[in-house]
Amino acid sequence: MKRARIAQLAALALAVVLVPFPARRVESQGAPQSVKPVQNGCHLCHAEYVREWRDSHHGLAWTDSLYQAAKDKLPKDQQAKCLPCHIPNPVQVSGPGKIPAVRTKAQDEGVACVSCHQIPVHGKPDDIGTIVGPYPVDQMAKSHPYKHDKSLVDSIALCASCHGIDRDHNQVESWKGSVYEKEKVLCQHCHMPEVKRAIHDKRGAIPREGRKHTWPGARDAGMLKKAATLDVAVEGGKVRVGITNSGAGHNFPGSGEREVVLIVTVTGADGKEAASYREVFDLRTRDNRIKPKERRALEFDAKAATGMVKVRLLYKLTPEWDEAKAAVAAEHEAKF
Ligand code: HEC
Ligand code: HEC
Ligand code: HEC
Ligand code: HEC
Ligand code: HEC
C-alpha cells in the first residue's frame, strides 16, 4: 500500500507533545535550507517543495514573459479576465472545478502554495489557515491545521479549476472520455512524478511518499518525446505519414497557445529536393489537434521515384515564434 508506512509514523506522532501552531509567526521545524521566502511561511518547513515549484510554470505563472506579453497585447479593460488563474486566490475558497478569485497579495508567486492548499481565515491574510492535503489527518503531526482531501489523490478536480474552464487553456475537456479517464490515469500521474522523501518537523526527518512539484509540460524534452510518434512509408508515388498522440493525456498540442508543425522533405536520388510540405496542428486557426491515442494519417506526392524522405514534428510554444526556435518532438527518415 502506497501510504502504509504512515500508520507506523502515527504512533510516533502521538508520542510527541504537540504544540498548537502559532497563527502569525512560524519557525522552521528542522533541516533549514535557504530558499527565497513565500507567503504564509511554507518555505520554513517545505524547502524542497518550494524549490521545485519556483522553477515550475506554476511558480512562474505571473512573471512568465509569454504570459505577460499576451496579456499586455490586450486593451487595458480586457486584461482583468487574464488574472484569476495566473494569480489565483485559494481554489479551496471558490471550490475545486470553479474559477478562482484574483489574489492581490504576493502576485509574483503566480499559482502559489496557498492557491492549491489553503483554506484561509477570513480577514486574516497572514494566518496559515487550514492546509488541505493528501494524508489522513489522524496520521499527522500538528505542525499546522489540516484537512484531508482524498480528491487531491484520486481525482482531477483541483486541476480542473484552471485547466478545464477557458477554451484556450483546457486539457480537461479532451482528457474526459479518453482511455486515460477510463483507466483512471490522472493529470497528477503524468505531471507530478512519485517521490519518496522526508518531511521535516521537530521529530526530525519523517519519511513520506508524495509527488514532485515540478509539473513538467510543453518545455520538457522528455514529455514532448513521449507525446508523439511518427510512422512513414512511401508507396505508389505517395508519402504516407502517421502522427500518433501516443503519450499526451489530452489533445496534442495541449493548449491554444501552442502549434505543432509537421515538415516533410523529399530528396530525389540526385540529392536535390523533390518536394516539401508543411502542416500545422493547433486550436486557433484550424482546430485540428490530435486526440489522445489518435493516429492522424496524411498523404503527400513523393514527386520522385527513388530517394529519401525526412519527416520532422516541431513544437512551438507560441505561434509568433519562427521554426528555428521550436523544439523537435519527433523525427523519422525513410529511404525508398
Ligand atoms: C481559466 C483559467 C485561465 C484564464 C482565465 C487565463 N489563463 Fe492563461 N493559462 C491558464 C493555464 C491553465 C495555462 C497553462 C496551460 C495551457 O497553456 O493550457 C495558461 C497558459 C497561458 C499562456 C502560456 C504561457 C507559457 O509560457 O507557457 C499564455 C500566453 C496565457 N496563458 C495567456 C493568457 C491570457 C492573455 C489570458 C487572458 C485573456 C489568460 N491566459 C487567461 C489558465 C488561464
Ligand atoms: C512549521 C513547519 C511547517 C510550516 C510553516 C508549513 N508546514 Fe506543511 N507540514 C509540516 C509538516 C511537519 C508536515 C507533515 C507532518 C507529518 O507528516 O506528520 C506538513 C504537511 C503538509 C501537507 C500535507 C498535509 C496532509 O494532510 O496531507 C501539506 C499539503 C502542507 N504541509 C502544505 C503546507 C503549505 C502550503 C504551507 C504554507 C502555507 C505549509 N505547509 C507550512 C510543517 C509545516
Ligand atoms: C489555480 C490555477 C491552477 C491550478 C489549480 C492548476 N494549474 Fe497548472 N497551470 C496554471 C497556469 C496559470 C499555468 C501556466 C502558467 C504560465 O506558464 O504562464 C499552469 C501550468 C501547468 C503546467 C505546465 C505547462 C507547461 O507547458 O509548462 C502543467 C503540466 C500543469 N499546469 C499541470 C497541472 C496539474 C496536474 C494540476 C492539478 C494537480 C494543475 N496544473 C493545477 C494554473 C493552475
Ligand atoms: C498519459 C499522460 C498524461 C496525462 C494523463 C495528462 N497529461 Fe498533460 N501532458 C502530457 C504530455 C506527454 C505533454 C506534452 C505534450 C503537449 O504539450 O501536448 C503534456 C502537456 C501538458 C500541458 C502543457 C501543454 C501546453 O500545450 O501548454 C499541460 C498544461 C498539461 N499537460 C496539463 C494536463 C492536465 C490538466 C491533465 C489532466 C486533465 C493532464 N495534463 C493529463 C501527458 C499527460
Ligand atoms: C497546482 C496545485 C499545487 C500547488 C501550486 C502546490 N501543490 Fe502541493 N500538492 C498538490 C497535489 C495535487 C498534492 C497531492 C500529491 C499526492 O498525490 O501525493 C500535493 C501534495 C503536497 C504535500 C504532501 C506530500 C506530497 O508530496 O504529496 C505537501 C507537503 C505539499 N503539497 C506542499 C506544497 C508546497 C509547500 C507548495 C508550494 C511550494 C505546494 N505544495 C504547491 C498540488 C499543489
Distance separating the two termini: 53 Å
- Using the alpha-carbon principal axes, give the shape: elongated
Q: How many DSSP-defined strands?
A: 12
* Rg calc: 24 Å
Order of helices and strands: HHHHHEEEHHHHHEEHEEEEEEE
Strand arrangement, major sheet:
9-8-11-12
Strand content: 25-35%
Residue stretches low in confidence (pLDDT < 50, at least 5 long) are 1-30
**Percent of residues in helical segments?**
10-25%
Largest sheet features: 4 strands, antiparallel
Bound molecules: heme C
Q: Can you give a write-up of this model?
A:
With 336 residues, the chain is α+β, with helices and mostly antiparallel strands. It folds into two domains: 6-211, no CATH class; 221-335, Immunoglobulin-like (Sandwich), CATH 2.60.40. The protein is built from eleven helices and twelve strands. Strand 6 and strand 7 form a beta hairpin. The site of one heme C has 21 residues, from helix 3 and helix 7.
Notable characteristics:
about 325 residues; alpha+beta; Immunoglobulin-like; four-stranded antiparallel β-sheet; three-stranded mixed β-sheet; 11 helices; binds heme C
Topology:
Elements: H1 6-15, H2 47-55, H3 65-72, H4 91-94, H5 113-117, E1 118-119, E2 130-133, E3 146-148, H6 151-154, H7 157-163, H8 172-175, H9 179-182, H10 187-191, E4 194-201, E5 204-211, H11 221-227, E6 228-235, E7 238-245, E8 259-268, E9 273-281, E10 295-301, E11 307-316, E12 327-335
Parallel strand pairs: 2-3
Antiparallel strand pairs: 1-2, 4-5, 6-7, 7-10, 8-9, 8-11, 11-12
